[in-house]
Amino acid sequence: MGRLLEDMTRLAGEIQTLHGSRRAFRKGLSDGNRELQMDVFEMCADFVDTQARVAKRAKEERLDFLKHLRRSVSGLQRAMGADLVAARRVWAGRGT
After folding, report:
1. 37-58, pLDDT tens digit by residue?
2. What is the largest CA-CA distance in the chain?
């Protein structure tokens, strides 16, 4: 009976050791998951910040473009108006 008792005791110890290893492994997975979740959360927050900066810069660029376009169109309208006034004078026979 001594040999059987020793083997059973050894197996019980191995089982307990394996249970402990399994618990440690699962805890490691759980901790790793939390770390990955935090990394993903931070990455998403960075994406939101970057997207907001890009959107702001794009809006400013669009507004600058529109401002320049308005100035260009206003200049063209003034030039066209001046040309029409000059053309009316010529057609009316008043000269330039």
Report:
1. 999 999 999 999 999 999 999 9
2. 135
pTM above the 0.85 mark? no
Query: Tokens at residue 66, please?
Result: 């529109």
The torsion region of residue 45 among left (phi > 0), alpha (psi -120 to 50) and beta comes to alpha
Tokens of 16: 């307990």
Residue with tokens 């699962």: 26
87/81 Cα distance (integer angstroms)? 10
Tell me how far apart the terminal alpha carbons of the chain are, to the nearest angstrom: 130
Quick check: 63 and 56 in contact, CB under 8 A? no
Q: Tell me the per-residue pLDDT of 57-84, one tens digit each, with 9 for 90 and over.
A: 999 999 999 999 999 999 999 999 999 9
- Identity (one letter) of the amino acid at 93? G
Give the 3-state secondary structure percentages of the chain, helix then strand then coil, rounded to 5. Answer: 95, 0, 5
